Every structure is written in structure tokens, then in C-alpha cells.
Amino acid sequence: MSLSTEETARRRTLAEGAGYDALREGFRWPEAARVNMAEQVCDSWAAREPGRPAILDMRAGGAPEVVSYGALQALSRRVEAWFRGQGVARGDRVGVLLSQSPLCAAAHIAAWRMGAISVPLFKLFKHDALESRLGDSGARVVVSDDEGAAMLAPFGLSVVTETGLPQDGATEPAADAGPEDPAIIIYTSGTTGKPKGALHGHRVLTGHLPGVEMSHDLLGQPGDVLWTPADWAWIGGLFDVLMPGLYLGVPVVAARMPRFETSECLRICQQVSVRNVFFPPTALRMLKSEGAELPGLRSVASGGEPLGAEMLAWGRKAFGVEINEFYGQTECNMVASSCGALFPARPGCIGKPAPGFHIAVIDEDGNETDGEGDVAIRRGAGSMLLEYWQKPQETADKFRGDWLVTGDRGTWEDGYLRFVGREDDVITSAGYRIGPTEIEDCLMTHPAVATVGVVGKPCPLRTELVKAYVVLRPDVEVRASELQAWVKERLATYSYPREIAFLDALPMTVTGKVIRKELKAIAAAERTAEAAGEVS
């Protein structure tokens, strides 16, 4: 075993050869008084193996540029020198408006090394979204590219691109940081109100590792190469892929597509022999709809919404491996996962709790329940936020006693966590509580359906009725009655969509989740119009 392989194995939190129960029982969060993520993901590797590949940069479209840990450290030191020249000090916030690139990684590393707080920003944000996050965080300097600099011009900030960095890097030692010291503010998606900044400490990477390793069947095996089409501006790209890969010494591919395209996805994976992929559900649906196959992968992870039995079965055929579903949110991520290397997947279930996380289904009083309830995580989890940035009341509201309440509803099923739906997405119809996800999964198995969103529509008789908004595949026609029968035949008769509307596209977040809040507003407006017609 080479030194590199030994070091990677030492860094993995989950030991090979142990069963799931043994890993859970034997796991303890590290109690180090000092931790700086810049050292974890870059500086320690650069000191030991500076030539080791860190990032495979595919942005040019040709052969990948191999960026070593030594080169990544040098780039981050140049960013750090610019930060210091701008007067950035410990605790100051710095924006990172970049897509997948070595500079994106280097900017975060530079901020963490000097004790500043990085704020990832998405390149597809428009003016108001940038203004909200920059204003709330108080960031006054931003690392970006030429396109981003133009976007930031109205805000009067100090912006630097790679060509504007100093040639000489900073030389100061890494800040003496502890696990609870602030490191990064990641803003929530904003689908349920104005985005809030989840402030995380330097322990957040350590907190992600058990779940990340589970979702990739013990990530860190010889030959592993990691990629995701998800942007590094979001917690899924940044802490489910980039930073864990760098920590474990697994090369991470930088290849962000302007929009997901199956042919480009296959080219990227084949050209650099990608072995480990995090595919958001939307990407999986597109791959499936185009009949794509991708042999040679060692692990495929997915998260954001449940996939369903039909998608999992397709994944086994298309990839030759199980798709490991994982679960978490910006406030406390990678808390549960499937793991084909440890236990079989169960369709409709998210997986099992990652080592180090105590997940419960609780009632309104904060007591654990065997039935359906609120999915919650006990305080003390490694990836749990410190607070919502400068929002003490919102932070307090997120907790119920010692439990962080996710806003999701779930149940336990033989040790597996089954996702029922968002608390405000659960449909109450004729006394039944109906989760929309199961209906969406069922409709997605119909050959005519490309994507679908299901919500409750106000109904004076039933409280709500189930309504499905469906996008069909190109050049395909189907009657609503056929889709209704499809669900009736596969689920319960009370849960079939009593109304179906066909749309050209669904409202979605930038990470590919259906925005049910907007569909609910459409359904409510329909009911209002119907009621007006009844009165007239």
C-alpha cells in the first residue's frame, strides 16, 4: 500500500469490513480543539504530496488540466494575498461568484485559512438575488470572473478575477480556528420565504464525511474520481463533492455545464474515467429519458428528492451499480444515506442515519414517535449550522427542544427513513394525509411523462383534492383519464390525482427541485376562479 493510499484510508471515517451497525455504534465525532478547513482540504496534502492531483479541470473542453495540491495551494495563497491587501480580517465575509473551477476552490480555501467567512454565490443569480445575499452577509469583496465582475458592477464592491491576483502569495500561517469558529455562510434556496444564511463552522466538512462516504460506497478507494453536474455554489456541490473529495485525496472534476446535456455528461465521464458521481434527480430523469448508459462507475449518489423503485431499477441497469440516495438540507446536511456496500436499498426510503447522527421522527411536543411525524436531528451533529446569520429568532424557531426540525415529514420502516413529504406539502383529502412524492414517482413511470409536480388544491368538499401538473415527453399525447387510471392501478384509489393539467414546463429551483409553492399558488388561483364562477 502506497503512502497516498494509506493516508486516504486513514482519513476515511468509515472503516472497510465493518457492518453498518458496528459503524454506527463505534462512531464518535473527533474532539480536536483546533481545525481549519484550509488545512484539511489543501495545505496538509500540499505539504505531504504537492504533486498529487486535486482537481481535473475540464472547462476548456479538451484534455483536462491536472491541478495538483501544490498548485491549488499556490493559487489560494495569491487569493489570500489579495484579501489581505483589501483589508479583509478574521470574521469578515468574502463572496465567491464562480462556477466549478480551481479558482472557486482556492477562494474558499484562502478565506478559511485566514479565518474569514466565505459566501458562495451562484452565477445564474440575477440582480435582486445577488443584492439580497451580499447585503445580508455584508460581504464587500468578491472573487469572480469577467462575467461575474460585470454582474457585480452595480454594487460598488471590490472584485478580483484570476488575472488580477498578485503574483506573490501570502505566507502567514493558517488561523488558529476551532470547530465552532465561523467559516461559511450558505444561503437557503428561498422556496419557502426570503433566503436565510446558514452559518457553518470549521467542523462542517468533518460533519459531511460519514454521509458522503456512505453515499459513494466508502469513497476513497484506489482509482476513485469524483464529479457532479451540480454547481459548487450550493451545499450539494461544495460539501457533498468538492471538499470531501479534496479532503480524501480523491481527484475532483471541474466541468460545470451551462445546462445539463446527456451527451456532454457522457463525454466528461468517459474522458477522465469518472468513477463516482452525484447526480441530482433531474439529471437522472434526463439520462433515463434519453436511454443513456454509463458503465464503469463505482458509485452513483443522488439527493434532493426520493427517486422511487422504477428509477432505482433503471439505475442498476444503466450504471451497473445501486443509486445511493442521501438526505439532508443546507442547515444540516448528509444526515442519512443508502449504501449498497453496507445494506440493500429500499425503494421509497431515503436510507439509514449516517454514523454520528441521531435522527428521529417526532410529534408536536418534541417526543419521538413510531408513526408519521416531523423528521428531526438531535443537536451536536457535525454538519449542523451554528445559526442563521444574524437571525436569532429564526434560529430558535428551527429547533424544538434539542431537535433541529427539518420541515419534512417521515416515518421509520425497519430502520429505514421513509420520506413522506414537506410538512407544508402533505395533502389532506377526505380525512387522508397524502404525500405527493409517491404519486409523482408513480406518474414518472408512465412512458408519456417527462416530469410532474403534485399538490393539494383547495376543495370545499374534501378540504383538498390531489392535483397533478404534468409535462409530457416531446411528440407524445396522453389523456388525463389514462394517467389517473395509471395511479389508481398502482397506488391507493383515494390518492389518485382527481385533476391533471398539462404544462410546457414546471417551476423549478436552480438545483432542479419542483417548486411546489408556486404550483400551490396556481391551484389556489384556479379554485378562486371556480368559486367566483359558482357564485355568479
Automatic annotation (TrEMBL):
<keyword id="KW-0547">Nucleotide-binding</keyword>
<dbReference type="GO" id="GO:0016405">
    <property type="term" value="F:CoA-ligase activity"/>
</dbReference>
<dbReference type="InterPro" id="IPR042099">
    <property type="entry name" value="ANL_N_sf"/>
</dbReference>
<dbReference type="GO" id="GO:0004321">
    <property type="term" value="F:fatty-acyl-CoA synthase activity"/>
</dbReference>
<keyword id="KW-0067">ATP-binding</keyword>
<dbReference type="InterPro" id="IPR020845">
    <property type="entry name" value="AMP-binding_CS"/>
</dbReference>
<dbReference type="InterPro" id="IPR000873">
    <property type="entry name" value="AMP-dep_synth/lig_dom"/>
</dbReference>
<dbReference type="GO" id="GO:0006633">
    <property type="term" value="P:fatty acid biosynthetic process"/>
</dbReference>
<dbReference type="Pfam" id="PF13193">
    <property type="entry name" value="AMP-binding_C"/>
</dbReference>
<dbReference type="InterPro" id="IPR045851">
    <property type="entry name" value="AMP-bd_C_sf"/>
</dbReference>
<comment type="similarity">
    <text>Belongs to the ATP-dependent AMP-binding enzyme family.</text>
</comment>
<dbReference type="GO" id="GO:0006637">
    <property type="term" value="P:acyl-CoA metabolic process"/>
</dbReference>
<keyword id="KW-0436">Ligase</keyword>
<protein>
    <submittedName>
        <fullName>Acetyl-CoA synthetase</fullName>
    </submittedName>
</protein>
<dbReference type="GO" id="GO:0015645">
    <property type="term" value="F:fatty acid ligase activity"/>
</dbReference>
<dbReference type="InterPro" id="IPR025110">
    <property type="entry name" value="AMP-bd_C"/>
</dbReference>
<dbReference type="InterPro" id="IPR051087">
    <property type="entry name" value="Mitochondrial_ACSM"/>
</dbReference>
<dbReference type="Pfam" id="PF00501">
    <property type="entry name" value="AMP-binding"/>
</dbReference>
<dbReference type="GO" id="GO:0005524">
    <property type="term" value="F:ATP binding"/>
</dbReference>
<feature type="domain" description="AMP-dependent synthetase/ligase">
    <location>
        <begin position="43"/>
        <end position="385"/>
    </location>
</feature>
<feature type="domain" description="AMP-binding enzyme C-terminal">
    <location>
        <begin position="438"/>
        <end position="513"/>
    </location>
</feature>
